[in-house]
Amino acid sequence: MTKGRVAALVVVAILLIDQAIKIWVKTSMTLHESIHVFDWFYITFIENMGMAFGMQLGSKIVLSLFRVVAITALVYYIRSEVKKNAKTGYVICLAMVLAGAIGNLIDSMFYGLIFNESSPFYVSYFVPFGTGYAPFLMGKVVDMFYFPIIETDWPSWIPLIGGDHFVFFSPVFNFADTSISVSVVLLLLFYREEIGKISLSRTIQKEGES
What is the reported pTM? Predict the structure, then answer.
C-alpha cells in the first residue's frame, strides 16, 4: 500500500470514529448530561463554538474559514511529502492532524444544518437538511471526553484560592482533538528533524523574497 493510501485510510478511519461518537452523543444525551464511567473518566456532552478543548478564539465564521484554509494547506503539504517519499510515520502523524481538523470542521459545516438545537431538557434529533439550528459553517462542535484525574479542594490556608474546588485537567474534548494532540506529541518526539526542515525552508523562502 502506498503512503498516500495509508494517509487516506488513517483520515477516513479517524473521521468515521469521530463522527460516530459525536452523532451517538448528540442523539442519545441531553446537553450537559454526564455518564460516569470511572471516577476519573466521564462522558459529558457539551458543545462549543471555538477551537479544540472548548477554547474560544474570535468569531465563529472566521475560525471556520481559517480551518478550511489550514486543511487545504495541510492536504497540499501531505501530498508533497508523499511525493518526496517521506517517512511513513511522519505521513501518518500529518494525516492524524488533518483528520482531527476535518472532524471538527464537519461539525461547524453541517451540524447546524441537520440537527435541532441541543438542550438540557431533551435529546437532539435530525431535521430536514437546512432547517437546523445554525447556518453553514456556524454549527457547534460536539465534545464529550472528560478526565477529572484529580478532583479536590485547595487547603484553606492557601491565600486567595484556599477552599476553592480544583480539578486537574478539566477540559472536555472529542476524538478529533485527541487525534491532533497525540499526533503533535509524536511529531515532537520522533520527527523534530522533519519539523525543522519546514522551518528552514520557510526561512530560506523569506530570505529569497527579501
Answer: 0.86
